[in-house]
Structures are given as structure tokens and as C-alpha cells.
Amino acid sequence: TGGKVFQWSVSGAVNSRGMASDNFDGTYTILVGSSNVIGAYQFEVKRGGNDILGSPFVLNNLPGDMNIFSSSVDMSHTLNFRVGEIRTVTVQAKDSARNPISFGGEYFRAELINAESGASLILVKDRGDGSYTLDIQSVLSGNFQLRVTLSNIVVGGQIYSFSIFPGALSTSTSVVSGTGLSNSRAGTVTRVTVVP
Q1: Residue 93 in contact with residue 130, Cβ under 8 Å?
Q2: How far apart are CA 68 and CA 192, in angstroms?
Q3: Residue 9: which residues within 8 A CB-CB, separation 6 or more?
Q4: Is 179 helix (H, G, I), strand (E, B) or coil?
Q5: What letter would DSSP give residue 26?
Q6: E strand map for the chain
Q7: Do 61 and 35 meet the contact criterion of CB atoms below 8 Å apart?
Q8: What is the pTM of this model?
Q9: Residue 146 near residue 164, CB atoms below 8 Å
Q10: Beta carbons of 49 and 5 less than 8 angstroms apart
């Protein structure tokens, strides 16, 4: 047994080739290093220039294990954020090569932090496809931070800062108050307060 020569090749986004190692027991071992590029690869095993039975095969290179430091938080929807609006932030679980994970099951935690109002928890929804969403809505304007964690480790190693600006004035939601609405005195200043 043994002594035969088998060639192998992998083609796709990354190509490689080599020879099978003889185990000297009638079997041969092929070690194919995994690429960081996910996708389908064609794997061929040949002897004497001819494909062996079943060759070529399709290898699906899937994402690796989730890596908290490679995962990301998309804050792009928080630009020009105004009081009362709802903005969705997306967390994308990724492997160490920054490939998106394609399944859910992680338990992320999100906190919205403001110097005046403190911290509040925000529900993080698992979309089942490796992405997670959270909706932010505030009744206060000011500077905020968003901290997203998994097992108390900050996603991507970053706490995100953003601003929420006062809401647009609306005639249907603005309120006017004050004693000057019903009575005023001649020759004096009357004070009325408008709350948008």
C-alpha cells in the first residue's frame, strides 16, 4: 500500500494546490489551509491527471466564530437626529477576518448614556441573520453615547458619541402657556411660553 501520488487543487476567490501526504496505511491526507475569504470553492483531487471518484467537490468556506472586536455598530442613521424621531442602529456580528456572521443567537446589550438623564437600556432585537437592531428615541436634546456590549465587552472596542438636536417646530404639537393668554395689563410686558 502507499506510494501513489495524488494532486489536489482549490480554486475560487483564493487558489492553492499541493500533493497528498502518504499515511503508509493505504490512506492519504490532504490538509487545505482555510482562506479568510468566505464563499464556494472548487476542490479537485487527481491521480495521473484524472479526477478521482466524486471529484471535483464544492467546499463552502463559512465565516469563523464571532469575534466581538471585529463586529461593528452602524451609527450612520444617527446623523441629523432630532428629538422625537426614531433611529435604527444595526449591530453586525463578524468573525476575526471581518466576515459577516450569517446566524443569530448572541445577546447584545445596549445603553444610551446622557450626562443629564443618566443611562437607559435599549432593547436589542436579533434578526436571526447575524445582524441585530436597536431603536433609539429621545425626548431630550443633547450629547449622547451608545455603548453596545456582549458579556460586558464593548463591541468593536468603541463607545459611540452622537448628538440629538431639538425637534422641528410643529403647529400641531406646540403648546402655548402663561397668564398673558387670558389677561394682560396696559403698559406692561406680558410673558407667554411656547413649548415646541
Answers
A1: yes
A2: 53
A3: 15, 16, 17, 43, 44, 46
A4: helix
A5: S
A6: 7-11, 16-19, 21-22, 28-29, 39-47, 50-51, 57-61, 72-74, 81-82, 86-92, 109-114, 118-122, 125-126, 131-137, 142-150, 153-154, 160-165, 175-177, 193-195
A7: yes
A8: 0.72
A9: no
A10: no
Contacts of 15-19 spanning 24+ positions with Cβ under 8 A: none
- The grid cell for 70 is 471585529
Q: In a 3-state reduction of DSSP, which class is residue 60? A: strand
How many residues are given for the chain? 196
Quote the percentage of the chain above a pLDDT of 70.
Answer: 95
For the segment 89-109, what is each residue's pLDDT rounded down to a tens digit? Answer: 999 999 999 999 999 999 999
- The C-alpha cell at 168 is 422641528
Cell of 112: 444610551
35 and 57 in contact (C-beta within 8 Å)? no
Single-letter code of the amino acid located at 88: T
User: pLDDT at residue 196 above 70?
Assistant: no
* Confidence grade of residue 189 (pLDDT, cut at 50, 70, 90): confident
Q: Please, which pLDDT band fits residue 1 given cuts at 50, 70 and 90? A: low
Mean of pLDDT values over 151-157: 94
The grid cell for 125 is: 432585537
